[in-house]
Input
Amino acid sequence: MASAEERLMEWLRDAHAAEQQAETMLSGTAQRLENYPELRSRLEQHMRETQRQAELIRGCIERRGGGTSLIKDTGGKLMAMGQAMSGLFVGDEVMKASIASYAFEAMEIASYRTLIATADMVGDQETKRVCEQILHEEEAMADWLEQNLPTLTQKYLRLEETPGATAKH
Ligand code: MG
Ligand code: FE
Output
């Protein structure tokens, strides 16, 4: 039978692996964007936040006496690279990447809410505080995407109809 403390450690490791995956995905996507400067700079901003989040989560794991899983981190990074590279083969890369980013943020928001409840239950106030801080950044990123998706979509569609313009990224 797993204890709440064990689950907290496991879920913190999952969160750490997800942040590493996010960093690879965000940098891969941002680097390829040429015609969407606002999206590119927001992704770059969130990539820097994501690097910090990974460090903060690593700090929580180490404070609780654990280590991060190299296998999970590496696997996630490879998957993320594949996801970012898959944009090379689709004509609507920027749209696919934006939708994937929003889905990823939703996953992170749910994961951090779970972690906050778990940290609260085992009485780890510092982990709870860290996860609440990260949750705000994930919500801000999801809000930004939500607000900017319509404009982004229409810009994409207009570029696609413009002769000689690159719409995909
Ligand atoms: Mg994150
Ligand atoms: Fe995020």
Notes: The radius of gyration is 18 Å. Residues 117 and 128 are 8 Å apart (CA to CA). The chain has a mean pLDDT of 93. The first helix runs from residue 4 to 32.
